[in-house]
Amino acid sequence: MSARAEQKLKTRRALMDAALRQLSADRGFGSLSLREVAREAGIAPTSFYRHFAELDELGLALVDEGGVALRQLMRQARKRIARNGSAINTSVDTFMEYLNNNANLFRLMLRERTGVSTTFRTAIQAEIDHFVTELADDLRRFAEEQNKPLSDARMVAEAMVTLVFNQGAEALDATTREREELKTKLKTELRMILLGAQSLARQTARAEKR
């Protein structure tokens, strides 16, 4: 990579980081201005357009980064699960690690998921769908390995992701103690979903044999 190309990537990264730093519990992406993001990144506003066509394009790049980071982390969780065997405990602990390291990325995805921008909503839903699909595949595999069929792995995955996102929203600004309590609650709720899906599958199988 040439020095010029490398510098361009660094400046693009600086702009993305600058936008993230300005997000908080009280401030969403929609309230940011191009000028303040450029100033925070240490470049002139006119230079912004060398990297992004508009501020929303920067936001979409952040959404993509947030989704990729979450999927990569959960793939690492699979390796941990293979070692200790506790899928729900490991997955929840890994997700909380993601929140610790990517709090403002998660804020962005939460807010814009139901925001006014159709483009943002579509992009975030696509990231969530990717995550749900991977989780559904994992659930099917675990069900086969443990001989514990699920009634509908995709539906179970959707319920789990919705629950995790909702609890994640609460955990973002929680104290250490509150976050530990949320983790315990989340693990219990996920087990309830899983056990319910397994029970429904058994009931369905018995009904089909009659």
Brief overview:
It contains 9 helices and no strands. The chain has helices at 3-21, 34-41, 45-48, 55-84, 87-101, 103-113, 118-146, 153-171, 176-209.
Task: Write up what this structure looks like.
80% of the residues lie in helices and 0% in strands. The protein is built from nine helices and no strands. It has helices at 3-21, 34-41, 45-48, 55-84, 87-101, 103-113, 118-146, 153-171, 176-209.
- Quick one: how many beta strands? 0
For the record, give the distance between the C-alpha atoms at the N and C termini, rounded to a whole number.
Answer: 67 Å
Q: Please compute the radius of gyration using only Cα atoms.
A: 20 Å
Order of helices and strands: HHHHHHHHH
Largest sheet: none
Mean pLDDT: 88
User: Low-confidence parts lasting 5 or more residues at pLDDT below 50?
Assistant: none
Helicity level: over 70%
Principal-axes geometry comes out as elongated
The fraction of residues assigned to DSSP E strands is: under 5%
Helix run count: 9
Which structural class should the secondary elements be placed in? mainly alpha
Topology:
Blueprint (H helix, E strand, L loop, with lengths): L2 H19 L12 H8 L3 H4 L6 H30 L2 H15 L1 H11 L4 H29 L6 H19 L4 H34 L1
